[in-house]
Each structure stands twice: as structure tokens, then as C-alpha cells.
């Protein structure tokens, strides 16, 4: 081998090893600090369902931050037997970016996820999606309906906390509009969970969390299917549903109008929910995601009074007539 060939061979081997290491080990979602949450009490699944039929104290609103289109192969595992049997093929799928307001009469106003920031529609180049990641996510296809700054300005009471389903960019995009003293809560291991894709997104996640205190992570047990009673009064529950990301979390609210399950991206689509098919390329661990989804579907099958809010689509019956806000 000539010296030149040896150098080229060495560089290629080095790059391949580097990529392989990244793919196996991955990078953390963020370098922002995280600590176990003082809020929330670990409970059992039995306790979770105990008073489900009783109306609760929470007022919940489902808000559409934006309409968007993304490839179906990201939202749905098209290789799953159910998708194959239905002959589903990749295409651009219309979706929504949601967030939820959770009003507790004693503990105040919270949001689940954050929708999108004001800058996205008004000064896109200075938004979190202003750079390369925004290009890849087709920022130009996001049609903003209600940004976080506008929504916050309409509220009579201050926002007390942010409960995240996970830290993907489309769920933390509204954070820049939220005052930095407001604490952010997420699932156990979400902040520093490792994935290859974080090589592209960690900078944005750090930027979104900048100035906020350490992320407070739910004290789920080590095993899957942990359940946390967020306020300790059985009104709002965090459910450990790993798979989409390592710390993915669903929330179940006992509202004045009955129980509402916010699934997060454990299931993006109405088709996926109806057929029990996990997301496609947007999900980190499809097998674990599928198990988490099966658990949530079973919970709803056993308690049909639970209304379901999916990650990025309305379940048909829940779609509002005017698609700006629901409930
Ligand atoms: Zn999402």
C-alpha cells in the first residue's frame, strides 16, 4: 500500500469508526442540567384507575399551535404487519402541532408541551428553527395558528410550570416565549438520553432550555410503566412510556369533563392509534414504543370514558369543527 493510500484508508476507517460509535452510543439530548423532581408522588397503576370515572378538578384545553406536513414513514412504521396489510405507502401526511393548557384550581396554570414560539412565523431566521434543523424539518410547511407568546398574553394568571411529553424540537419550540423562571418537567432520563440524531438537535434543545432551572425529571421507577401522581391529589398523572425517546411521558388529566389522556408521540397518528402501530423513523426504539403504546391502548380499552389526545392528529371524533382550538 502506498503512503497516500494508507492515509486515505486510515481516514475512512476513522470516520466509519466515529459514525459507528455515534450510532451505538449516541449523544445526549441536551447538556442542560437535570435533577429528580420534588413535585409528584410515585403510585401504582391500580391507584391511577381508581377514581378515573369521577370528574376531577382540572380544566384542560387542547390548542392547535400549527398545521404541518411530514412524511408518513416518519409518523408510522410502514413495515409493521398492520401497515403492510393495509397497503400504506409513504406520502406527505397533514398533522398538527398541539399543546395543552392544564388549569388546577389550587396549583395554577401549566402547559403540556409548548407549541411554537412567536418568532417562528414573525422572525423565522431568529427562531429555534432558523438554521439547518429547520430546513430539514421543512419549517416553510409549518403554518402557525397560535404561538406561545400570543397565548400567554391572553392568560389571567401566570404560568407555573411546563410538563413535557419529550424533548423533540416540535414539542419544545415554544419554550423561548416562556419566562425562564418557569420550571420545566420531563420524564426520567429524557434530558440526557442518548441518540445519534441528537448530534443535530442538541444545540437547539440547549438553546430552548437556556436560562431555565435544571429540568425536573419525574421520579419514575427503573422499570417501565411507572406512574406519578403529579399534584398528589389524583388529578394529573404522568405515565412512563419509553420508546419514542428514553424519557417519553404521557399525561392523564381528570378534568371537569372527564379523563383525558395526552399520549404524546408514543402515537402520532389516528391510524396508528386505531391499529396499534408505533411511529416510523421519528421514533428511537420501535419495539419498546410499541409496548408502551399497547399499554396506553389497553388502559383506554378498559376505561372507554378516557378521551384520547394523540401526538400530532385528532382522533376523528375529537376533531373540532373550527380547527383552532378544541374541547
Ligand atoms: Zn412530535
Keywords:
binds zinc ion; six-stranded mixed β-sheet; globular; Metallo-beta-lactamase, Chain A; 11 helices; disordered C terminus; 327 residues; eight-stranded mixed β-sheet; alpha/beta; single chain
Task: Give a description of the structure.
The structure is a single chain. The protein is of the alpha/beta class and 327 residues long. It has a single domain (3-318), classed as 4-Layer Sandwich (Metallo-beta-lactamase, Chain A), CATH 3.60.15. The chain is built from eleven helices and 16 strands. The protein has helices spanning 3-25, 45-50, 72-75, 81-85, 118-122, 132-136, 148-153, 169-172, 198-209, 270-275, 286-302, and strands at residues 27-28, 34-36, 41-43, 59-71, 92-104, 108-112, 143-144, 159-163, 184-186, 194-195, 215-217, 227-229, 236-240, 249-255, 258-264, 307-310. The strands form three sheets. The chain has an eight-stranded mixed sheet with strand order 2-11-9-8-6-5-4-7. Strands 3-12-13-14-15-16 form a six-stranded mixed sheet. A two-stranded antiparallel ribbon has the order 1-10. The termini are far apart. The model is unreliable at 322-327 (pLDDT under 50). The site of zinc ion has 6 residues, from helix 8.
Amino acid at each position: 500500500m502506498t503512503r497516500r493510500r494508507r492515509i486515505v484508508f486510515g481516514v475512512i476507517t476513522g470516520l466509519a469508526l466515529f459514525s459507528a460509535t455515534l450510532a451505538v452510543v449516541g449523544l445526549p439530548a441536551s447538556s442542560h442540567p437535570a435533577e429528580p423532581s420534588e413535585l409528584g408522588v410515585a403510585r401504582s397503576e391500580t391507584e391511577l384507575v381508581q377514581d378515573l370515572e369521577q370528574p376531577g378538578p382540572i380544566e384542560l384545553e387542547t390548542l392547535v399551535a400549527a398545521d404541518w406536513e411530514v412524511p408518513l414513514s416518519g409518523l408510522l412504521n410502514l413495515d409493521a404487519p398492520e401497515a403492510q396489510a393495509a397497503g400504506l405507502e409513504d406520502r406527505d401526511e397533514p398533522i398538527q402541532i398541539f399543546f395543552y393548557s392544564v388549569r388546577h384550581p389550587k396549583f395554577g396554570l401549566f402547559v403540556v408541551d409548548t407549541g411554537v414560539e412567536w418568532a417562528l412565523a414573525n422572525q423565522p431566521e431568529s427562531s429555534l428553527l432558523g438554521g439547518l434543523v429547520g430546513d430539514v424539518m421543512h419549517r416553510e410547511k409549518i403554518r402557525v395558528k397560535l404561538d406561545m407568546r400570543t397565548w400567554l398574553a391572553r392568560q389571567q394568571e401566570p404560568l407555573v410550570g411546563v410538563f413535557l411529553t419529550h424533548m423533540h424540537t416540535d414539542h419544545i419550540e415554544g419554550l423561548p416565549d416562556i419566562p425562564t423562571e418557569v420550571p420545566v418537567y420531563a420524564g426520567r432520563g429524557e434530558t440526557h438520553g442518548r441518540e445519534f440524531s441528537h448530534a443535530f438537535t442538541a444545540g437547539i434543545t440547549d438553546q430552548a432550555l437556556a436560562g431555565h432551572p435544571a429540568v425536573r425529571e419525574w421520579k419514575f421507577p427503573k422499570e417501565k410503566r411507572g406512574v406519578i401522581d403529579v399534584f398528589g391529589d389524583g388529578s394529573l398523572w404522568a405515565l412512563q412510556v419509553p420508546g419514542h425517546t428514553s424519557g417519553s411521558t404521557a399525561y392523564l388529566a381528570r378534568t371537569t369533563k372527564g379523563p383525558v389522556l395526552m399520549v404524546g408521540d408514543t402515537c402520532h397518528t389516528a391510524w396508528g392509534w386505531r391499529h396499534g402501530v408505533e411511529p416510523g423513523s421519528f421514533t428511537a426504539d420501535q419495539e419498546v414504543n410499541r409496548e408502551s403504546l399497547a399499554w396506553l391502548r389497553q388502559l383506554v380499552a378498559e376505561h372507554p370514558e378516557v378521551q384520547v389526545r394523540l401526538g400530532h392528529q385528532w382522533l376523528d371524533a375529537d376533531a373540532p369543527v373550527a380547527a383552532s382550538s378544541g374541547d
